[in-house]
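Q: How would the structure tokens look for this protein?
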Amino acid sequence: MYYARYCRSVLFTSATHRQRFARARASGADVCIVDCEDSVSPRDKAQARLDAAGFFPDLRDSASRLGVRINGLCEDDGLADLLAIREWPRWPDIILVPKVESPRDIEIVLGVIENVDLIVLVETACGVQNVAAIARAAPQLKALIFGSADYSVSINSTMDWEALYAARAQVVLAAFEPRAQADEFLVDVAQLDAQRFERVHVGVEQAFGFGDAGAKFLAARVGAADVVLAADDSLGEL
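A: Here is the predicted structure in token form.
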């Protein structure tokens, strides 16, 4: 079985917390993302996209890949984020695009900023239905993430593994289809509390057992995610 390395560990830092930027970049995570979406209130979106530019220093001080999560492209803030990034002094290595529902979303991003890796979040019923086409959309696509939390809200279901199994299966099949562009596949393990080690570990085991190449952690501490992946050699080579 192949195990993901491109972004085994992902750390999110809100764009509203500039004082945490340097510490995030020094965390050792494979990917560090400054977040302009879920962690930012609507009234702070405009300031957040200005402040997020400071996450990408002129002099590289981190071995991590640095990225930004923009707002959804069906929202004014998502389009404003893209146009703002184009004017930043230093562009991100990665743009994480939420709520992707068709290949057109990827085309829009690359039409504005071409030389960038993409990670896409599939987290709506429409996105799951179109995930095979999304996975083939562009060579810049490096990973698909199944956003279980928002998906469960969109279909009014629980976040139990069984309730989301069918949608996860569609994303897995799309990611490993021969024509898929994504180098990696990550699955949201639906466990947001990294301090509850046993539950996180169970989620990781489920993810790998499902045939996924890796696991995404929405955790405040990267160390917790790394410990989980290192806890059992059967989960893959680190």
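The radius of gyration is 17 Å.

The longest helix spans residues 197-209.

Upvote if useful.
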